[in-house]
Every structure is written in C-alpha cells, then in structure tokens.
Design a protein that fits this description.
Number of helices: 6
Distance between the termini: 65 Å
Strand content: 15-25%
Mean pLDDT: 89
CATH class of the largest domain: Mainly Alpha
Strand order of the largest sheet: 1-2-3-5-4
Number of strands: 8
Low-confidence stretches: none
Largest sheet: 5 strands, mixed, barrel
Structural class: alpha+beta
Oligomer: single chain
Length: about 240
C-alpha cells in the first residue's frame, strides 16, 4: 500500500543505523504515523531539500502494509519552514510532545491538524504566547473526546454567569462552587473566555492554564513532560543570582 503527497509535519526524529532515521509524523488524513527514512542522512534526490525536521510543512509519500512503521519514499517541502525563535521554539516542542504522548498512531484528526498548523504559525508571529497554547490544549482535549463543557452548569443546566464562581469537577463539568465542592475554582468569566478562545484578561488566562492542566493531567499520567521540565530549568538558569 502506498500513500502519496500527504500533508504532514515531523514531530520527532531518531537516528537509525548509519544513514537512516525513524520519524514520528503528524498528517492530515492519517493522524500520527511512524516512518523509516532509509538513507536520509546520506542524502538523495527523494529527500533533497525536504528538511525532515519539526515545524517544516511537508508532502510525505510512504509505502507499507499498515503496520506501526512504513517506509518513507519521498518528502517535499511545499513552503518554507515555520520559523520559531527564542522561547517559541520550546513552546513548539511542548506542543509536539503533547501529540506524541496523547495521539495513537493511524487515528485521523483533521481538525486537530488544522489547530496544530495554526498554533505553530501563531507562535511564529507572536512568540511563546500563552493564549495560543491554551487554545491548542482546549482543542486537543476536544479532539481526544475529553472536551470541556463550559457554557452551562452541569447540575442545573443554567448558563454560566461571568459574575459567579464555579468549580470544574472531572467527569461532571462546571458546578457552582461550594465549601465542600471538589475541583479547581474558576471564575465564570474565565469559562466564558475559554469558550470564546479570547484571553485578553490576564486572570482568565491564568485560571484557564490551571484548568486545562488539570484536564490534561490524567491523560498524560505520572511521567512528566520533558519539554516542560527543560523549559523551567532554562528559565531558572537565566535568572540573575541573588546577592
């Protein structure tokens, strides 16, 4: 079976033998796929100028029998790589790691592919913008079947109000905050901002980060995200020493 000119991005690459690489790619029609690029590091016409690296839009062709790994036949770059600089690079790798950890191979997510392309281009324009990451996390949860219900209170069905305080209870949704209610406290204004994907308010952005982190945590499990830890280490190293 052969697939030709499939839109995709490389999420990660690993050396394989002396001249080849193992690739994890995210594609429009097939979702996450594993590819063996034989002879890629030696060069050749089939991969000339393709730049098999993260953040480069590609047209990928491969052959295989539908197993975990297929053989990369050809790769072309229809446009320049999406240029991420400074902290935006680490934000891009964070998004890649989320996809590697949470997506199963051969599970198509066309809408998520569009969201991924959008977040990379947003990071390229605005740097590591927190709002772009929060919007992607929200869309990722929805694509995985764990979308947050934000518009109505779970127990009564009443619309969320900006002036009230709520808690988001896992497997239930938004409930009015009470003294014994479990879950993270979040303002109604934050829930409405997250539903609109509009984070001009700093408080809404901060609360949404915590809420989305809580929602992702059980899916990610106990193993910490490598990119998150590395970014924190780098930020700490940049701080001037205390006198």
């Amino acid at each position: 079976m052969r697939t030709d000119d499939e839109r995709g991005f490389i999420l990660h690459r690993y050396p394989y033998g002396e001249t080849s690489v193992l690739l994890e790619a995210f594609t429009y029609d097939f979702g996450r796929v594993g590819l063996v690029g034989r002879g890629v590091r030696r060069g050749g016409r089939a991969f000339a100028g393709a730049q098999l690296r993260p953040f480069q839009p590609l047209l990928l062709s491969w052959s295989g029998r539908g197993g975990d790994l297929s053989t990369l036949v050809r790769a072309e770059a229809p446009e320049a790589a999406i240029s991420l600089g400074g902290n935006a690079v680490w934000c891009g790798f964070y998004v890649n790691e989320l996809l590697l950890r949470l997506l199963h191979r051969h599970d198509p997510h066309a809408d998520l592919y569009v969201a991924y392309d959008e977040v990379l281009r947003s990071l390229a324009v605005s740097g590591c913008q927190e709002s772009a990451l929060r919007i992607f996390e929200k869309r990722l949860l929805a694509a995985l079947g764990y979308g947050l219900t934000l518009a109505r209170e779970a127990h009564t069905g009443e619309p969320v109000r900006a002036d009230l305080t709520y808690r988001y209870v896992r497997d239930e949704g938004v409930v009015r905050a009470g003294p014994d209610t479990p879950g993270r406290t979040v303002g109604g204004a934050t829930l409405m901002a997250l539903a609109r994907e509009d984070f001009r308010d700093a408080t809404a952005l901060r609360e949404a980060k915590g809420l989305l982190g809580d929602a992702l945590a059980p899916l990610l499990g106990d193993r910490p995200l490598y990119t998150r830890g590395l970014f924190r280490t780098m930020q700490a190293a940049r701080k001037p020493p205390r006198e």
